[in-house]
Write a structure and sequence with these properties.
Strand order of the largest sheet: 13-14-15-18-17-16-19
Number of domains: 3
Helix content: under 10%
Largest sheet: 7 strands, mixed, barrel
Number of helices: 2
Shape: globular
Low-confidence stretches: 1-30, 36-41, 348-359
Strand content: 35-45%
Length: about 475
């Protein structure tokens, strides 16, 4: 359980790392919470908006200040569920950053944190050099990379991004880093046609195919024979880490190369797919190494307020990042928070968006189908976007369960890969439930009851 905690900003309590930057932390938390409830408390029971005058039995799920929380106290829950911010927000790095330069195709710099106590993550900042290109990522533990932002810098110095507060729980290990490239004015290029395929799972591509699976969006797997039966082995042999793949208006920087004989596997960034699946002309750019300037404070972390933080650096791709004691030009804005140990988060409308300080968009009513309707007197089904995060809320009933469609989100509000989210349902005896959300915007409810379903959840529109 979370435990009741306060997060002191000073005194070394941030060992550090965070999450979403972070839907990843919420996804992992959802899975662990489902197991916890199944083992100790039985199914979750949807109770609607939190009422301060009620005592909630274990397994009750309520909505409080945008947070969907589940009661985990065996004797029942009486305290307020939602996390409460205290004190002032501060940036973790408190020094005066300097700079250095290195001849490379690209650089990767960042910081890795371990959170000693829970806190809100309220934003981040990036130290840029005008003219350089940046892609910012986050990673929870050793999990998949999550792209946050693509930025072509027009200014030099810190650029701040205020986001919707995200609760980061104690013990979270979180890395935030960025690739830095100085665009080459005249790269050497070659091109060829391949059939671009995005199946659910990865498998060896046949002749003329490039595989970019939903489950591994950080990997592009080419057959060395192109779609016109040309053998491109010699061309692929010219590529190195830091070179660029272009197709259908999308670009990916190569982070690692694995030659597998008839095929070649590239680890790429950003971790996004293009659409639709089709035969595209792929243009490969061989980038000339240039002097790339990056922000760094050498040896900062061991003598700082947060000595457990580590710097991250690589001039040889994401797969070869190493830790050091330097502070690099990405930083997090955090705030102390107190949380009741009677409740655990199921989901929150507070998610970190990668859009750079975007204000929340308006709530839009959802057009329900297949018999679904809003539970009378309760929150209507709605969606909105905050940065790159889509938020869904509402209590619905009486519709056809999956695989029947519940509703469909419009373009711009869809997941980059097919995914699932934990939601809650009750028929008087309560049930756990899941929502299936697919890349065409379809939202389906899977549960043993359709009497009362709380659909509050969120996801990123970037991989």
């Amino acid at each position: 359980m979370v435990g009741k905690f306060q997060y002191p900003i000073r005194g070394g309590n941030l060992a550090r790392d965070d999450g979403q930057i972070l839907a990843q932390a919420h996804e992992q938390r959802d899975r662990e919470l489902e197991d916890y409830l199944a083992d100790e408390h039985g199914a979750m029971r949807w109770k609607g908006s939190w009422d301060s005058g009620q005592k909630y039995p274990p397994g009750s799920v309520v909505l409080d200040d945008g947070w969907q929380m589940v009661c985990v106290e065996p004797s029942g829950c009486t305290e307020r569920p939602a996390p409460q911010a205290i004190g002032s927000e501060v940036y973790v790095y408190e020094g005066t950053i300097g700079s250095a330069s290195l001849l490379a195709r690209q650089l990767i710099v960042g910081n890795r944190y371990i959170w000693a106590e829970g806190s809100y993550l309220n934003g981040y900042r990036v130290n840029t050099v005008a003219g350089n290109s940046y892609v910012i990522y986050s990673q929870v533990g050793g999990g998949a990379l999550k792209q946050q932002l693509i930025l072509d810098a027009t200014t030099t110095g810190w650029t701040e991004f205020t986001v919707s507060p995200t609760l980061v729980q104690a013990g979270t290990v979180f890395s935030v880093f960025m690739t830095i490239a100085e665009p080459a004015p005249t790269p050497t290029t070659w091109n060829g046609d391949w059939d671009y395929d995005t199946p659910p799972n990865q498998s060896s591509p046949g002749a003329g195919v490039v595989m970019h699976a939903n489950s591994t969006p950080d990997q592009m797997w080419f057959n060395k024979t192109d779609n016109l039966t040309g053998d491109r082995t010699a061309d692929f042999a010219t590529l190195e880490v830091g070179d660029v793949i272009n197709a259908n208006g999308s670009s990916w920087a190569i982070q690692n190369i694995t030659d597998q004989g008839a095929t070649i596997l590239f680890t790429v960034a950003p971790t996004v797919q293009t659409a639709p699946d089709a035969v595209y002309n792929f243009v490969f750019e061989t980038v000339t190494p240039t002097a790339i300037t990056y922000a760094v404070d050498t040896g900062w972390w061991p003598t700082s307020t947060y000595p457990q933080v580590k710097g991250l650096f690589s001039d040889d791709g994401i797969d070869n990042v190493v830790e050091d004691d330097n502070a690099y030009g990405v930083d997090l804005l955090v705030q102390a928070v107190t949380v009741s140990d009677q409740w655990e988060p199921v989901s929150s409308s507070a998610e970190l968006g990668g859009g750079g300080g975007d204000a929340p968009g308006p709530w839009t009513d959802i057009s329900l189908t297949n018999g679904w309707e809003t539970v009378p007197g309760n929150q209507p089904a709605q969606y909105r976007k905050v940065g790159d995060e889509v938020q869904i809320r509402g209590e619905i009933r009486n519709g056809s369960l999956g695989p029947a469609l519940c509703f469909q989100l419009p373009e711009g509000f869809r997941v980059p890969v097919n995914d699932y989210r934990s939601i809650a349902a009750t028929d008087g005896t309560s049930q756990a439930a899941h929502a299936q959300i697919t890349i065409d915007g379809s939202f389906r409810v899977f549960s043993s009851t359709n009497s009362d379903v709380g659909i509050s959840c969120q996801f990123s529109v970037t991989a």
